[in-house]
Write a structure and sequence with these properties.
The structure is a single chain. This protein has 20 helices and 18 strands. It has 539 residues and is α/β, with parallel strands linked by helices. It has a domain of 144 residues: Rossmann fold (3-Layer(aba) Sandwich), CATH 3.40.50. Strands 2-1-3-4-5-7-6 form a 7-stranded mixed beta sheet, sandwiched between helices. Strands 8-11-12-13-14-15-18 form a 7-stranded parallel beta sheet. The chain has a two-stranded antiparallel sheet with strand order 9-10. Helix 7 links the parallel strand 4 and strand 5. It is globular. 44% of the residues are buried.
Length: 539
């Protein structure tokens, strides 16, 4: 049992939630451990409002003539996370037995979760979908037992490790490339946890509470050396998998930490041939028909993208795929056409703002005209678009937000996602001393909330959340674009012919007057609490 590893992945609250009661339990669990978190609560309430109305519409549909099409009721069994599959693949290679579970099992089936914990000697806990210490610390304590060791890895550890001293319950924090770290960890497990020795490309640091095992960076930019994740290790009740072909990002948008993940500032990527070979194997051997690329940018390098699409077209694989993309790549119609022909079905684009000044402040390296053209090309070739936008970025005003609305109205993406400007991640460019001074940006450095407080010369966080709520309502009410939070579970099934009735449904969601009045009152109360906290922490 001591050599058996429990792989734990997922987040506290995920897009797969089906029970409002279960979500409430998790939110209460997190709020108990949070600090200065009224902005976080405000954001969650803002996101919850249309979801409540959406659930009401689904309930009403049982008793009215306005039936909701079966598309929205379809619940596909979701595949394991990519992290889970990668860790399982590496553990199998090392000859170490494993079990796996998601964090949500602690709440949905605590008896089964406890059984798994009691019958494994080491827990690999991925922090990729955990947001801050208010989530991480109590979850770690739920997994820690006298008989086991806790190993943390993932994105949150990369964010925390430079200043974090660890936890008494955490034995080891793994930072960087898991593929380079796991051999050392495997030997540690096989030694009955008596000897943790570094191998080439690894460093070990002892801090107050935990050991930190940190990988160096690979010698080459080519990632073809990485193991192909073995999805056949898991029960094949799914036809969709996740894929990763790059690490980092060649761009330096001021708000983004993708270029600095894995303790690495160099953009690295797999070759077009390696990706195509992996996909051919998954298609022919495992029957996979859908692949979701989790890369920060799949369309970079552009030459690789073109070569990859041509190989897929030649192989005639029956695979549909989705990815994150740069607008300046999609602004070239021949690229969009080639992607669509090769099986691309959906792209998520970081539009971020419809205002030129905000894009410049973000160091986005993309302009309004390019963003317009990208959306036009995708609509022409029926490549579904999901645009992400940030509200409240330094320089934001009432007018810049109106410009964003005007942009979306003129060239609507199929789906949109609104996010509040966040200062949660340290060491991103917007938080360097020069930018703080430039924008009079003041932040409350708080690792116990996923939404630390902030204000700058043109807006403060409370004001920005109310702008976000208003913009969200207007986009739904005026049938501009589809809210990705509402339709997340069925976005992969979207067809352009469905857009009309989905926009009508969304407008009904926005028109729940009584529910809106209730949320108006809740927001006023939270605003008061948030303002009081802002006076204390950002005075």
């Amino acid at each position: 049992m001591r050599e058996k590893v429990l792989i734990v992945t997922g987040g506290l609250i995920t897009s797969q939630e089906n029970s409002i009661r279960e979500v409430g339990k998790k939110i209460f669990f997190q709020w108990k451990n949070s600090k200065a978190a009224w902005l976080d609560r405000k954001v969650k309430i803002t996101m919850a409002e249309p979801l409540f109305a959406f659930y009401l519409e689904q309930f009403y549909s049982f008793f009215s003539s306005k039936k909701i099409p079966g598309l929205l009721k379809k619940q596909n069994w979701h595949p394991p996370s990519l992290t889970e599959v990668i860790l399982a693949t590496l553990l199998q290679k090392e000859g170490i037995e494993f079990e796996s579970m998601e964090i949500g099992l602690l709440f949905s089936n605590p008896k089964k979760a406890n059984y798994l914990i009691q019958n494994t000697g080491c827990v690999f806990l991925s922090t990729t979908y955990l947001h801050d210490l208010s989530e991480l610390e109590p979850i770690v304590k739920r997994f820690k037992q006298k008989h086991n060791k806790i190993v943390l890895g993932g994105a949150l550890t990369s964010i925390l490790y430079k200043t974090w001293k660890g936890m008494a319950e955490v034995d080891l924090v793994a930072v960087g490339y898991g593929e380079l770290l796991l051999p050392s960890i495997a030997n540690w497990i096989k030694s009955n946890f008596t000897s943790l020795q570094t191998l080439p490309y690894t460093n070990l640091i002892h801090r107050q509470h935990s050991m930190f095992l940190i990988s160096q960076t690979p010698e080459s930019r080519n990632l073809d050396f990485l193991e192909t994740p073995n999805w056949s290790l898991f029960e094949q009740n799914f036809n969709t998998i996740y894929y990763e072909s790059v690490r980092g990002c060649p761009y330096r948008c001021s708000f983004c930490n993708y270029p600095y993940l894995f303790n690495d500032k160099t953009f690295r990527f797999k070759s077009a041939k390696r990706i195509a070979d992996d996909w051919e194997y998954y298609s022919k051997e495992l029957g996979i028909t859908n692949i979701i690329c989790l890369d920060s940018l799949f369309t970079i390098p552009r030459e690789r993208l073109l070569e990859f699409c041509k190989i897929l077209i030649q192989k005639k694989l029956p695979i549909k795929w989705t990815c994150y993309a740069r607008a300046d790549d999609l602004a070239k119609e021949e690229i969009v056409s080639l992607m669509k022909e090769s099986g691309a079905s959906q792209v998520q684009i970081g539009i971020e703002s419809g205002d030129a000044t905000i894009l410049k402040n973000m160091n986005k390296a993309c302009n309004i005209e390019t963003n317009h053209q990208a959306l036009i090309n995708c609509r022409k070739h029926k490549l579904t678009t999901a645009a992400s936008l940030i509200i409240g970025y330094p320089g934001e005003t009432n007018q810049t937000i109106q410009n964003t609305y005007n942009f979306l109205e003129k060239t609507p993406p199929d789906f949109y996602f609104l996010a509040l400007f966040s200062t949660r991640i340290p060491n991103v460019p917007i938080l360097n001393p020069e930018n703080k001074k430039r924008f009079s940006l003041k932040v409350n450095e708080n690792q116990y909330s996923m939404a630390p407080y902030w204000k700058h010369s043109t807006m403060f966080c409370l004001e920005a959340t109310n702008h976000l709520r208003r913009l969200d309502f207007e986009l739904m009410q005026n049938k501009v674009s589809l809210n990705s939070v509402l339709f997340y579970k069925t976005m992969s099934e979207f067809h352009f012919g469905d857009r009309g009735w989905m926009l009508d449904l969304q407008k009904r969601v926005a028109n729940h007057t009584i529910l809106r009045m209730i949320f108006d009152a809740i927001n006023l109360w939270v605003d008061k609490k948030l303002q009081q906290d802002l006076d204390v922490h950002l005075s």
